[in-house]
Specification:
345 residues, alpha+beta, five-stranded mixed beta sheet, 68% helix
């Protein structure tokens, strides 16, 4: 379900948002060219620009209606033919053929089959080659001065460079955003919003390697969670887990790292050189869970296995395993309690 959600968002970004940007950019380019043609007195060629504007507006409408393939096809056909025609009219040096690269890029980004994309690019190549041949053998229809040819060349070159840069930036930012979302998704528990087991293990190992402060590690189990599931159903069981996690979040401090370890188990890392601070935080969690249980008229409690490793403790003990054993002891001794151990004592 999550994968489908991200796929739908990617399709919208790639096929709708990017295409809309291309169409709008092209619209402004055509307007600028129309102004230039009026200044130069080439009024008849404004008909070509009217055709392009009509194609752009049609593509924008089709794109809005999620008919992305149709929108791209209309835009590519009309713009390819008109830019090819401009090459014949104003000659090679005008660099209208540069827009072949943009049409090729748009073809690649459209949601067509590979075979369709290949055939369209072959047709695009044929159109531009034909226009090139006509220009070479028959010369441009308008004999522009060198200065005007350079003006067209510079304008077209700049437009193409800007378009390529915007497309590259668009996909770079989109890919970066997708990567960040996937990183969050991979490290977060979907139900509680807490970091997941993978994220916790990474943080725990990093803290042990840094060895900059004492480490308190708690393994926490929601007491009688199976009874909640069997009595009230799994949906209510999920609500209980969310309630417990909300309690943890409400008292979390900067030196705390709280994660869902799996099932009804949570884990807490506390960076502190004061073992009493760590124990007091564990007691705060236990008491707050009891209070929230009373507020919803349920006997809700947690058991905690707590191990503390002082700063500069020699060796790299498996704190997770030790805390898990202490948690088992707390459960076997009646639940709703904390069993702790300080290494080196």
């Amino acid at each position: 379900m999550i994968a489908n959600k991200f796929q739908e968002k990617w399709n919208k970004t790639q096929y709708k948002d990017q295409a809309r940007n291309v169409y709008l950019s092209s619209f402004f380019i055509v307007i600028l060219y129309s102004i230039l043609l009026v200044i130069l007195g080439y009024y008849w060629y404004l008909l070509i620009n009217i055709l392009i504007v009509s194609a752009i507006l049609t593509s924008l409408y089709a794109n809005k209606k999620s008919k992305h393939a149709l929108a791209s096809l209309i835009f590519i056909i009309v713009c390819s033919l008109t830019t090819g025609a401009y090459s014949v009219i104003f000659g090679f040096i005008s660099n209208f053929l540069f827009y072949a690269f943009l049409m090729t890029s748009l073809t690649i980004f459209t949601n067509w089959k590979r075979s369709t994309k290949f055939h369209i690019m072959v047709c695009l190549g044929a159109v531009y080659i034909l226009c090139g041949i006509l220009t070479y053998y028959y010369g441009p229809l308008e004999n522009l001065s060198i200065e005007l040819q350079m003006v067209f060349m510079i304008i077209n070159l700049v437009f193409c460079m800007v378009s390529v840069a915007r497309t590259t930036a668009f996909f770079f930012n989109t890919t970066k955003e997708a990567h960040e979302q996937l990183a969050i998704l991979a490290s977060t528990d979907y139900l509680t919003g807490l970091p997941n087991r993978t994220s916790f293990v990474y943080t725990y190992e990093k803290l042990q390697d840094e060895n900059e402060t004492g480490i308190g590690l708690m393994m926490i189990d929601t007491d009688d969670f199976k009874l909640f599931n069997d009595t009230y159903g799994h949906i209510y069981g999920d609500e209980i887990l969310q309630t417990v996690s909300d309690v943890f979040k409400s008292v979390k401090q900067a030196n705390h790292y709280i994660a869902r370890y799996g099932g009804e188990e949570f884990t807490v890392l506390v960076r502190s050189n004061d073992v009493n601070e760590v124990y007091q935080f564990a007691e705060l969690l236990r008491n707050n869970v009891i209070e929230i249980g009373n507020s919803i008229d349920k006997q809700l409690s947690i058991s905690i296995g707590l191990v503390y490793m002082p700063l500069h403790y020699m060796g790299h003990p498996n704190l997770i395993s030790i805390a898990d054993e202490l948690l088992y002891q707390a459960k076997s001794e009646g639940k709703n309690k904390i069993v702790s151990k300080v290494l080196g004592l």
